Amino acid sequence: MMAEMGLVAARERATLPGTMRQRMHHMRYSGFRVIAEALRGHKGWTPAWRDPVPQAAYDYVIVGGGGHGLATAHYLAKEFGQARIAVLEKGYLGGGNVGRNTTIIRSNYLLDGNQPFYEFSLKLWEGLEQDFNYNAMVSQRGIINLIHTDGQRDAYTRRGNAMMMHGADAELLNRDQVRAMYPFLNFDNARFPIKGALMQRRGGTVRHDAVAWGYARGADSRGVDLIQNCEVTGMRIENGRILGVETSRGFIGAKKVGVAVAGSSSRVMAHAGMRLPIESHVLQAFVSEGLKPVIDGVMTFGAGHFYVSQSDKGGLVFGGDIDGYNSYAQRGNLPVIEDVAEGGMALMPMIGRARLLRAWGGIMDMSMDGSPIIDKTHIDGLYFNGGWCYGGFKATPASGWCFAHLLARDVPHPTATAYRFDRFLKGRMIDEKGQGAQPNLH
Ligand SMILES: Cc1cc2nc3c(=O)[nH]c(=O)nc-3n(C[C@H](O)[C@H](O)[C@H](O)COP(=O)(O)OP(=O)(O)OC[C@H]3O[C@@H](n4cnc5c(N)ncnc54)[C@H](O)[C@@H]3O)c2cc1C
């Protein structure tokens, strides 16, 4: 009986207009609130978002409660004034890559199709915590890409110039400047001597799962229904138009459906009969035991695939190449652990003294040129956002904003005009790494 009443109340709540629901649930976080709650035994905190019962139909259904799906819903409601929005997540919010990545943000891209988009994203990161009223620990601690050859210095100089021409910040550091920052690096390694670095001071790290929680709270406070444990298992399409999605909690109608499921892109879009230019691969991440502060920024090795930062708890957070075979398993294998460890040892031999505390994997939606897709499909009302490879965390704010722009206005956002399906047809690849059509290398 009680459960039934709860269900009815939840249904009623779910059907209330957005502003009323907002009043019921939204609690503003602030320093004063923390002090006030401390004084009354923390009894006044309310849940960060509701647990609504799905309605029969929405104007917008976003599939995937990761960073991109939640950001899309947040901006659809907040920036584009849209309502009747739901996010459907098959597990729990933030259980995918948004909660599994190595938290690096930056806009140090070279190509025209990418640089303005990632710079837009970095600017959004800079105001994010105020925007969604949540502490996501945005930390612009700086990122350096190490240089090991003269040719690489030329390439990074060109990249730095491209960044500055698009309004981003970039600096070229010489060897002594790098040595002053990180004296423990292996500067005289016979194969990979360190000759300098490209630095972006505005790059850094963000507490990854707090990004999911912040966007979830922001969206919920504007009336978006966040529906967890709700897997999309099919799509209802008639006469070339999407009518809604079949889910583990029944059919949910929608005028527009936006898919943002990262590593599951191929599987979900197969429900619409689409085969994507995307492969799924595993990427692993690693955290060492807690150490005293030693790396105060983010660093990438230029002669192998290894990147490292230090978490606020002291663990060295690092990663490298993807596992190299197609998989939907959220775990990796030992050969890549060995490869990443070798990269770390070549760069900073002292890492060999640190013990590995944890390792995990996430599923990457690797596109054929390493760049994303934010586009309409040939099915009316069905939109797609994916192909982020292992770089989609830094893109979260801009990806959400641009996808919301496309869903609400039916035209691409000016910074995302190149992220279309037809670039593969027309040969207009955005191949930042110059690897060709080899997703496992991007
Ligand atoms: C180990 C690792 C390190 C990384 N490091 C970085 C980094 O340092 N910097 C960076 O920029 N990027 C990094 N990335 C990449 C980044 O994490 C991803 O590109 C990005 O998080 C993907 O977008 P998302 O957050 O929306 O994905 P996700 O969080 O994976 O969200 C997709 C959601 O869709 C849900 N879903 C799937 N199928 C269905 C279905 N049928 N129905 C309903 N829901 C469904 C999933 O459960 C999931 O929650 C890293 C990734 C990994 C795994």
Write up what this structure looks like.
The chain contains twelve helices and 18 strands. The protein has two domains: 52-100 and 208-277 and 376-441, FAD/NAD(P)-binding domain, CATH 3.50.50.60; 137-201 and 279-367, 2-Layer Sandwich (D-Amino Acid Oxidase, Chain A, domain 2). It is 31% helix and 25% strand. The chain has helices at 2-15, 18-25, 31-39, 67-78, 115-132, 150-165, 175-181, 208-221, 265-270, 334-347, 396-409, 423-426; strands spanning 57-63, 85-88, 104-105, 143-147, 171-174, 196-200, 204-205, 225-227, 232-238, 241-247, 250-259, 278-290, 298-300, 307-310, 315-326, 356-367, 373-376, 382-386. Helix 5 packs across helix 11 (396-409). Strands 1, 2, 8, 9, 10, 11, 17 and 18 form an eight-stranded mixed sheet that branches. An eight-stranded mixed sheet has the order 5-6-4-13-14-15-12-16. The chain is an alpha/beta fold. The longest helix has 18 residues, at 115-132. Bound molecules: flavin-adenine dinucleotide (FAD). Flavin-adenine dinucleotide binds at residues 63-69, 88-91, 95-98, 100-104, 231-232, 260-264, 268, 283-285, 319, 362, 388, 390-394.
